Amino acid sequence: MKPTLIGCSISLLMLSACGGGNDSAAPAAQNVLLASTASGAAPAPSTSTSTSTSTSTSTSSAAAVEIVRVSSARQLQAAIDGAAPGRQIVLADGSYAGPFSIVDKNGRADAPITIRAEHRGRAGIVGSGGLALSRSSYLNIEGLSFTNAAGAVSLSASHHVRITRNRFALAASATPNKWIVLTGAGSDYNQIDHNEFGPRHDLGQMISIDGAKDKVAQHTTVEDNYFHDADAQTENGGETVRVGLSQMSLSDGHTIVQRNLFVNCDSDAEVVSVKSKSNTVRYNTFVNNVGQVSARHGHGNQFYGNFFRGDGSKAKVGGLRIYGNDQQIFNNYMEGLTDEAIYLDGGDYDGGPNQTDPPSDKLASHWRVYRAQVMFNTIVNSSAGIVIGGREFQPRDSRIANNIVLNRRGTLYDEKTQTNTVFEGNIGFGSTISRVPRNAAAIAVVDPKLVAVGGLQKLSAASPARNAAVGSYAIVGDDMDGQPRSARDVGADEYVDGPVLRRPLTPADVGPDAP
Fold first, then answer.
1. Distance between CA atoms of 477 and 12, rounded to whole angstroms?
2. 89 in helix, strand or coil?
């Protein structure tokens, strides 16, 4: 199966509006990503009056749209309380002291309820709280600035909510604080996209995908966001994005975290923490974060097509750390890291190759790795390469295939003790190859002859990695650039002509003002 980007090429129903600002498009059907139609760069200041006004308009192919303009916190809450499908609540420039309660407000797929700034970033939520949604659906939150205390947006038993083109830089809190949280049964099919998160100076998650009891919220999409500058904390619990919790870790999340940029997110050893099953972390860029992306709990997750970059001197900048069963890691590019690039850690609990009903007190343990696949990754100029083992229970039945590790220090393929891991088609060069002896079919000691292309180390025409991959690994259908694999080269890069479809992200590519 060839990995593909989830597209945004759906047909949009545009709703006409009276007055300034662009209207939000209606959301797509269930489990289809929504195309971004947020208002553009901020125009001239609003001329809205100080009283709430309501205007209805319609098109021949859409339900009626009611536009309600507000300019005070009281008007905003009143407009929310009276919202029906199709209402657009447009906030004039200014500050709105929260918290605001949104209870039992349900739009429709063709007529969402929308709360948006008239001019992106100029309507700010301040005060002691943000927006608290309960039992609500088909609702858009767009273009606001959140600098309030406590949480910014909470979703309880709410679905098909889109949080887009907002800025989050909340006031520091003395207690742990989740900026966006999804909780309660049925908080599914929500989307968080094109937002900016940071800077952050206190403890807590920027996005926490929770759920109810032993079930994580499902089918969340987190994409095209800019996360940056989260200060180091002395306590655990500062993950930038957390997908699940220990008690929910054996439930399927189907969350997609893609095309996000993380820069200087130093608040936890787990920049992205996956604590549930069947999730995907792909096409993200991680720059100089103190921490790693972790499959902390749960099984059957995929981590592919990500770029991890460090400056080579900032300590504890890492890549991926893995626990649990059937995790797949491929097409990742890692450079300048000062911690493990890919770490199949040992466990302190052996959950077995197929256990589904463990003792409840073991859900928070570090589960032994079974059947991990680490394939077609490139690691260059880092302190450590692919590391296997630790703790009591060593990884079992895993495969390390067709990777390139080119480091000038450390051990390139570092098994801390003998395991039954299968090695094939790998290349290692520049430092100590392996703690456990491996033959040339497992790890070839040869210069991969990489060259700098677009700021990355890629295969040259003379590279021995070309056409050298072994095994089928059919799931890897393209490379880190999004180019198809034909002859199947070793490492994250396939040496082919053609346009580069994916590359490391910059702040211009993500966040509220990105295309």
1. 30
2. strand
Torsions phi, psi of 83, nearest 5? Answer: -70, 140
- DSSP character for 396? B
Pair of tokens at residue 202: 């206190």
pTM of the model: 0.89
Q: The tokens of 22 are what?
A: 């662009």
Separation CA 412–CA 455 (nearest Å): 22
Return the pLDDT at 145: 98
Q: With CA atoms as reference, report the closest residue to 504 among 477, 479, 480.
A: 480
**pLDDT class of 45 with cuts at 50, 70, 90:** very low
> What are residue 203's phi and psi, to 5 degrees?
-95, 140
Helix (H) or strand (E) holding 131: strand 123-134
DSSP state of 259: S
Share of the chain above pLDDT 70, in %: 88
Q: Which residues contact 117 (CB under 8 A, 6 or more apart)?
A: 21, 39, 90, 91, 93, 123, 142, 143, 144, 145
Q: How many other CB atoms are found less than 10 A from the CB of residue 465? A: 25
| pLDDT at position 397 over 90 | yes
Nearest Cα to 87, choosing from 58, 118, 114? 114
Tens digit of pLDDT for each residue in 118-172? 999 999 999 999 999 999 999 999 999 999 999 999 999 999 999 999 999 999 9
Interval 421-437: pLDDT, tens: 999 999 999 999 999 99
Going by pLDDT thresholds of 50, 70 and 90, the confidence category of residue 52 is low
Helix or strand or coil: residue 488?
Answer: coil
49, exposed or middle or buried, with CB in 10 Å at 0-12, 13-18, 19+? exposed
Of how many residues is the chain composed? 515
* 3-state helix, strand and coil shares in percent for the chain, rounded to the nearest 5: 5, 40, 60
When the pLDDT of each residue in the chain is averaged and rounded to a whole number, the result is 90
* Residue 450 CB neighbours (<10 A): 20
> Burial of 362 by CB count in 10 Å (0-12 exposed, 13-18 middle, 19+ buried)?
middle
Give the Cα separation of 451 and 464 in Å (integer).
Answer: 13
